[in-house]
Amino acid sequence: MRKIVLMAMLAGGVVMNGMAQSKGSLGKNDPKAKTILDNVSKKFSSLKSVVANFILKVEGANNSVTESKKGTVYLKGNKYKVNLDGQEIISDNKTSWTYAKDANEVTINNVDQSSSSLSPAKLFTNFYDKDYLYRLNGETTEKGKVLQNIEMTPTDKSKNVFKVIVSIDKKNQNISKMKVFEKNGNHYTYEITSFTPNGNVSDATFSFDPKKYPGVEVVDLR
């Protein structure tokens, strides 16, 4: 499984603060969608931490589910940790670690602060930055929830991702689901199954301790 960029996802570079702006000749963002996204960002920014369980579904060009996995994401500010069936992705916003259980190998990188890719932290906060145009694409009802669906398209048409649909729980103003569409026909759907705010998440969660992984091979690319 490729490294998660939750959203392309869950979604992992982070951080472009500030509200999205109009794109001039490329078009303008939908003010209704902006209001919804601003409310989600404001709510999340007020939380000390978040633990969210999710299901990742990978679909091929014919919409058949080729893979489905359960995972958990831990968030604290711009730090995150993702556990997903044999893989851990950890970032303290300076260093990132990607651990593959089957190979007992961890790859270490510096976090690219200028990156515009969509990370787990960015998924819940600043996922609507200057790199996207967005519009409200109606409401749907799923599993008893009214979802406000926002379609996002990258301004850079060279990107492999050509569309992202973010579904917001209208009542709770939380991300409920996110679907990423790639030009090769693949779709990645991240569905949040539980959302726990302000849990006891220690800073140690967001670093990799090789002592806890006997015999681990370290590949340091910094």
Automatic annotation (TrEMBL):
<dbReference type="Pfam" id="PF03548">
    <property type="entry name" value="LolA"/>
</dbReference>
<keyword id="KW-0449">Lipoprotein</keyword>
<feature type="signal peptide">
    <location>
        <begin position="1"/>
        <end position="20"/>
    </location>
</feature>
<protein>
    <submittedName>
        <fullName>Outer membrane lipoprotein carrier protein LolA</fullName>
    </submittedName>
</protein>
<keyword id="KW-0732">Signal</keyword>
<dbReference type="InterPro" id="IPR004564">
    <property type="entry name" value="OM_lipoprot_carrier_LolA-like"/>
</dbReference>
<dbReference type="InterPro" id="IPR029046">
    <property type="entry name" value="LolA/LolB/LppX"/>
</dbReference>
